[in-house]
């Protein structure tokens, strides 16, 4: 089937347990070529964990992950780089793949940090570093991009430009993108599929559907759901501390 | 040409410096200096076994150090003790066991000082072969695993996510560490091998702005240390290991002036 060939990564009822506590449980989702899938949810709801499961960083997981590509670009949420390493932006760009000068320059220009090419990585500001991270992830023209809060610390105008860039990259390279974002406006405007997490999948679907969902409202508040129109839907369960679902 | 013991020592030392240069950079980047110490201490056990079973020292040390590294990895998985405590446990217990075994081997005359601090008189043509062939093998392997090893040194999750298999690179690197200790034990002595790994690399850090240049400076620093150290050793009849490490320390101190200068320039 042609749709199956477009699948880049697929999670089947995947979950991760650490010290007898579920970080995230029962997540099923798939990322296809040219599509943007966005994970939303409150802090600690397992968004980054889900992304790492999809990337194969966690080995001992529940359920399964099917990954159909090895050309992956990853922008982690937290990155602790040890500054005992003398590392310039240019060296960092070639961290996981050797690239020629033009490819590096192009990627750095796209995210607006070409002037920092010969700077030491440790001397960059948070926002500058974030732009370099994004440039590095897109420079290798991956099939799958996993972006965990890719614009954190970037200034407001830059944020919009970078989200536009992400959308453009998805169209041009026809790569699949798994995006984690707090910015609901962006999520709603640029995303093909939204997965709302809170230890498990609360609801998922098109941005429209999710915005109308009551669980989404319960998580993000009325204001967030007013971004789009309302749709009544009965909330039939509550969450315990362990992330279990209890029916009313 | 290799008849003269000093020429042999010099050729051996140069061979060692070519390998400790790049490996030392990774020891600093990955914070493995105490790990190197642990492997080096366990080398004594390897040496005693080599003597008892009349086996080649370098191979015996390599095998024992690799086993200790494997035990360490298992202990890290199975106990709740912090990494440095486990390293200390293995380092000192393997050193102690090695010394106890030496006590039993009364029928063999041991040059303990030579073992601990290196002995340039002890380098044979055979050792030269081991150092240069073994060294070339270590460097080739390092070149092969450079990308995943370096990427995971910068960030493990990035390397894993982008399909570089960092765990395999780490395991291979551990074996390379055991190998460099095995081939350099006669030159530098087991107490000072880690110094040979980290001091030239530390000096190089002060002078370099990219990983590649740090590796090159580290090799140059190691070569200079060996040459200066060995001539001093010959001239003043001092042990080769301490002389080489002292030379490396002097180079490190000199490199500090370079930092001062560049900080001044920045301000």
State the main characteristics:
heterodimer; A: 248 residues; alpha/beta; Rossmann fold; 6-stranded mixed sheet; 3-stranded antiparallel sheet; 11 strands; 26% strand; globular; B: 267 residues; mainly alpha; ABC transporter involved in vitamin B12 uptake, BtuC; 11 helices; 83% helix
Report the strand count of chain A. 11
Biggest β-sheet strands, sense, barrel of chain A:
6 strands, mixed
* CATH class label of chain B: Mainly Alpha
Alpha carbon gyration radius of chain B: 19 Å
- Biggest interface between chains: A-B, 27 and 25 residues
Second CATH tier, the architecture of chain B? Orthogonal Bundle
Q: What is the averaged pLDDT score of chain B? A: 89
Number of domains of chain B: 1
CATH names the topology of the domain at 1-71 and 183-240 in chain A as Rossmann fold
Query: In terms of structural class, how would the helical and strand content of chain B be classed?
Result: mainly alpha
Folded structure, characterized:
The complex is a heterodimer of chains A (248) and B (267). Chain A is α/β, with parallel strands linked by helices and 248 residues long. Chain A has ten helices and eleven strands. Chain A has a domain at 1-71 and 183-240: P-loop containing nucleotide triphosphate hydrolases (Rossmann fold). Helices cover 33% and strands 26% of the residues of chain A. In chain A, strands 5-6-7-3-8-9 form a six-stranded mixed beta sheet, sandwiched between helices. Chain A has a three-stranded antiparallel beta sheet with strand order 2-1-4. Chain B is mostly helical and 267 residues long. Chain B has helices spanning 5-29, 33-52, 57-78, 83-104, 112-117, 125-154, 156-161, 166-188, 193-207, 211-236, 240-266. Chains A and B meet through strand 5 of A and helix 6, helix 7 and helix 10 of B.
């Amino acid at each position: 089937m042609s749709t199956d060939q477009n699948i880049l990564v697929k999670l089947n009822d995947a979950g991760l347990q650490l010290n007898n506590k579920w970080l995230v449980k029962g997540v099923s989702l798939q990322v296809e070529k040219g599509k943007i899938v966005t994970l939303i949810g409150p802090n600690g709801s397992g968004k980054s964990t889900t992304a790492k499961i999809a990337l194969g960083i966690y080995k001992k997981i529940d359920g399964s992950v099917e990954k159909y590509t090895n050309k992956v670009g990853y922008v982690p949420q937290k990155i602790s780089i040890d500054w005992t390493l003398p590392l310039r932006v240019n060296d960092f760009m070639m961290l996981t793949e050797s690239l020629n000068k033009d490819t590096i320059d192009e990627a750095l220009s796209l995210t607006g940090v070409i002037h920092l090419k010969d700077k030491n990585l440790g001397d960059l500001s948070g926002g500058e570093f974030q732009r370099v991270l994004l440039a590095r992830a897109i420079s290798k023209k991956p099939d799958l991009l996993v972006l965990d809060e890719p614009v954190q610390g970037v200034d407001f105008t830059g944020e919009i430009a970078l989200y536009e860039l992400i959308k453009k990259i998805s169209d041009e390279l026809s790569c699949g993108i798994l995006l984690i974002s707090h910015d609901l406006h962006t999520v709603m405007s640029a995303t093909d599929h939204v997965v709302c997490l809170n230890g498990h999948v609360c609801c998922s679907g098109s941005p429209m559907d999710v915005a109308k969902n009551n669980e989404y409202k319960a998580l993000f508040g009325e204001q967030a759901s007013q971004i789009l129109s309302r749709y009544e839907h009965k909330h039939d369960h509550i969450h315990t501390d362990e992330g279990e679902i209890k029916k009313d | 040409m290799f008849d003269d013991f000093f020429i042999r020592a010099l050729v051996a030392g140069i061979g060692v410096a070519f390998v400790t240069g790049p490996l030392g950079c990774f020891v600093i980047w990955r914070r493995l200096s105490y790990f190197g110490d642990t492997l080096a201490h366990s080398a004594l056990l390897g040496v005693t076994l080599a003597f008892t079973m009349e086996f080649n020292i370098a191979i015996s040390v390599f095998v024992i150090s690799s086993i200790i590294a494997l035990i360490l990895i298992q202990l890290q998985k199975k106990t709740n003790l912090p990494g440095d405590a486990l390293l200390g446990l293995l380092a000192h217990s393997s050193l102690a066991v090695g010394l106890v075994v030496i006590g039993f081997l009364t029928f063999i005359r041991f040059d303990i000082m030579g073992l601990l601090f290196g002995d340039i008189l002890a380098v044979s043509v055979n050792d030269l072969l081991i150092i240069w062939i073994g060294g070339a093998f270590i460097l080739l392997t390092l070149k092969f695993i450079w990308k995943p090893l370096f990427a995971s040194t910068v960030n493990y999750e990035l390397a894993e996510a982008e399909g570089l298999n960092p765990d395999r690179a780490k395991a291979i690197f551990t074996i390379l560490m055991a190998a460099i200790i095995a081939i350099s034990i006669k030159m530098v002595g087991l107490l000072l091998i880690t110094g040979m790994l980290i001091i030239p690399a530390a000096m190089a850090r002060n002078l370099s702005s990219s990983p590649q240049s740090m590796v090159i400076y580290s090799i140059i620093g190691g070569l200079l240390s060996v040459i200066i150290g060995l001539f001093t050793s010959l001239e003043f009849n001092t042990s080769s290991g301490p002389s080489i490490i002292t030379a490396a320390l002097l180079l490190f101190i000199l490199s500090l002036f370079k930092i001062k200068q560049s900080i001044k320039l920045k301000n």
